[in-house]
Write a structure and sequence with these properties.
Two copies of one chain form a homodimer. Chain A is α+β, with helices and mostly antiparallel strands. The first copy, chain A, has helices at about 15-30, 45-60, 75-95, 105-120, 125, 145-155, 175-190, 195-220, 235-240, 240-255, 265-275, 385-390, 395-400; strands at about 5-10, 30-40, 65-70, 100, 140, 225, 230-235, 280-285, 290-295, 295-300, 310, 315-320, 325-335, 350-355, 360-365, 370-375, 380-385, 400-405, 410-415, 415-420, 430-440. The first copy, chain A, folds into three domains: about 5-195, Rossmann fold; about 225-300, Uridine Diphospho-n-acetylenolpyruvylglucosamine Reductase, domain 3, CATH 3.30.465; about 310-440, Phenylalanyl-trna Synthetase, Chain B, domain 3 (Phenylalanyl-tRNA Synthetase, Chain B, domain 3). Chains A, B: Its EC number is 6.3.4.19.
């Protein structure tokens, strides 16, 4: 949890757990201790008195004392308080003011957390409960002790602590579990329930650690971050066992929206089902995300919108496609230079147009429903939408799909290339060469 | 769950769930249905009436009816009843009397099971709850419906059912969950608790399916079945992530004792710790198993005992080592035959003795504490115990370790070979060649 000589800041509320922790760490010795306290100012004079109590305790022990006063945002007071404290502790660590922040959570807290999450339904991740050590540097040395043992320690040594009035109030879910449900379940079902739930957490924590490694590996293989979205090939998801697929989808959701807040079993399930459905389209919602299936792809992200554009392209030059990081480059090449441009280049996907056949009023715009033209190699005109279907282009890629027109005629579009009537050939004198580039 | 035309036997207790199931399957059509009923005879006339009710129902529907009367063993009546029913259903499947046995378990049963197991503390395996389909052929078509939906179905169709008196009794854990705890938790914590717990089960079931495959693969690699025991190399266990190591240990315990009854988190944990401890020895208990560490090995099995033996070995011939499937073969080879026995053979692990140097009173016995001799290559006499240490021979292998004596002298022992003073050499006329063989 900490090396000898480490600078350990102890979060002390003034309650039994954290007061015990502070005394125990002083007794242990060999650490550079300091005391942190957060005053939420929620209970007025009482809050003030807690802060003074902790300040005096630190002073008596000759330890540096750091008080943070916070004003809580609206919403769940219990949750907001917890977040404000964690934010403060993480700041202290990030600022290098200490090597570790030690908190007084006990096995009783662990059991309460696991029970609460079980009732809310939160898979193994939730059952893993409170972590004894976090990557950020928070440690919880009392996590294997029960609250009764803590109070015994304090009474034996006649160490005073403050009863937090909020700890008794039934309005907090935590207190209803602590004083109501947990003792009831222990009495009626399992006298060792606190220990049992701590084991459940420990088991789940190891499982989660295993999965984190597995899913890191798989997401590097199978998830692609796009513009404001994450893409998954449905085939790679279908190849996985259901448990792994579910976890990979959770990871994709987390990547796409930054967290997993509000995401439940049903959301994940519907995404997995969308990937396995035989039809290559469909849609489902995850809080904060739009999930679309198109052919072999799933897209998780903010809903994509069509941003119409109509530009005079630079010749020569590169014109950025609005709403994307791609640009269309246009270049004029004279006949005399054809030695560096073999004829077969005319048949590449990007293609070349015969400059003489163009009237010169070029427009670069996005694909529109109903667009049609005759690409080289086809015997007649075809709707671009049909070409999209044939080439399995996902719907979200179509929105900004570039089309080059000359007057009324489509002379080129991405992927399907030059129009048969405008394509450059051996007889062309001046060639307009098209390319697509990524703009950083 | 079942193919069209399948022969489906429906387990009907007479209660709402199973009566609903039977009607629903009749409605569904396309199946060859029959009705199974188990009478535990627990509630005398009432049990009888249940059986008659179900029999009459089957008759009215024109379905074959099979009644099994059982007498329950001592112990937990609820558990014994469940086991007796399952035994009967498995018999029916094994005998080929039906393709599937359909049971009336609902999502409400699922939630009760998950909650009960959570309170008892049973990792993901327990949280997986009731399986909708088992490998043996039991199916539970109502597993996604709640009990209220079942009763609605029956009331709408005015179908009567029997209220099982045992379902109301508070003496059964199941009933205390059904009528007490689950409604309380739903009211106080999560109105959708039954659904939440069903999802927990579904999630856990997929995880377990994944793990079953992983652990099958790993146990084929890392577990060795020995005489009444299972062996694991500690190195292969230490190389695994904790979650995987725990699951592999559970598998090893299951292999060694046939089931996992009575095995809890702490047992598994102590075995994993025994494997990771830096000292190469130690011991822990798992219900029904003795777990020993010796050097790089863990042995899980019935405690090994030393079975003393002292035999006149057959010359020539093979003598079985008592308590093992190994035998020591002794063979006499004349000088004239040395052409087929090159000299370097004398120096193999098994070795050869010079027949002339032996007084002839050979004894084959197990190693005794204090035994010592001078193997070839050592400059003096050495305790065999020291040689065991040097060669890292696990303690359980030492118990029946064979030693060959001639009068007072040890002339040979397994692995360490002939004694320097008795080993055959180029000058030997007649050679006693030793070998060890497996006896099937």
């Amino acid at each position: 949890m900490f090396a000898s000589g480490a600078r350990v800041a102890v979060g002390v509320s003034g309650g039994a757990d954290s007061v015990c922790l502070l005394h125990a760490l002083v007794e242990l010795g060999g650490l550079k201790l300091s005391v942190l306290h957060v005053d939420h100012g929620l209970r007025g004079a009482e809050s003030r008195a807690d802060a003074e109590f902790v300040g005096e305790l630190a002073a008596r022990m000759g330890l540096p004392f750091c008080l943070r006063e916070v004003t809580l945002g609206p919403g769940n007071v219990e949750q907001e308080g917890r977040r404000a404290r964690l934010r403060f502790f993480h700041e202290q660590l990030a600022a290098g003011n200490c090597d570790r922040v030690a908190l007084g959570h006990t096995r009783s807290d662990q059991a309460e957390t696991v029970l609460f999450r079980f009732l809310r339904g939160s898979g193994t991740a939730g059952l893993a409960g409170i972590r004894p050590v976090t990557a950020e540097g928070i440690v919880r040395p009392l996590i294997e002790l029960e609250r009764a043992e803590i109070e015994e320690y304090l009474r034996e040594r006649q160490i005073p602590w403050r009863e937090d009035a909020t700890n008794a109030g039934e309005e907090f879910a935590r207190n209803r579990i602590r004083h109501g449900l947990l003792p009831q379940l222990a009495a009626e079902w399992n006298p060792a329930l606190v220990e049992t739930l701590a084991h459940t957490a420990e088991f789940a924590r190891a499982e989660e650690a295993y999965w984190a490694g597995e899913i890191d590996r798989l997401s590097a293989e199978s998830l692609t971050a796009g513009d404001g979205c994450v893409l998954i090939r449905t085939e790679s998801l279908k190849a996985l066992s259901l448990a792994v697929a579910r976890r990979l989808v959770r990871r994709a959701i987390q990547m796409a929206k930054g967290d997993l807040r509000g995401v439940d079993f049903g959301h994940v399930e519907r995404v997995v089902e969308l990937a396995s459905a035989p039809t290559g389209r469909g849609r489902t919602q995850v809080p904060g995300l739009d999930v679309r299936r198109s052919f072999e792809w799933l897209r998780l992200g903010v809903p994509f919108t069509r941003k119409p554009y109509s530009l005079k392209p630079l010749v020569p030059g590169t014109t950025q496609i609005p709403g994307t990081r791609n640009g269309i480059s246009l270049e004029l090449i004279e006949k005399s230079e054809t030695s560096v441009l073999p004829w077969n280049v005319y048949n590449t996907e990007m293609g070349c147009l015969d400059w003489k056949r163009l009237a010169g009023s070029l427009e670069l715009r996005n694909w529109r429903f109903g667009d049609q033209y005759q690409p080289m190699g086809l015997t007649g005109s075809e709707k671009i939408k049909t070409l999209f279907q044939l080439q399995r282009i996902p719907v979200w890629e179509r929105a900004q799909w570039p089309v080059l027109t000359d007057g009324e005629s489509i002379v080129w579009t991405r992927r399907f290339g030059p129009a048969a009537g405008f394509a450059a050939g051996p007889e062309s004198g001046v060639v307009l060469k098209l390319g697509e580039v990524t703009i950083r």
